[in-house]
Amino acid sequence: MRKVILALTLCTLLTASCKKEDIKPEDVALQAAKAYYDQLLQGDYDAYLEGMLKGDSVPADYRSQLKLNMQMYIERQKAEHKGISKVTALRATSDTVSHTVNTFLSLAYADSTEEEIVVPMVEKNGVWYLK
Question: Which of 15, 22, 93, 111 has its CA 20 to 30 A from that of 30?
Answer without folding.
Answer: 111
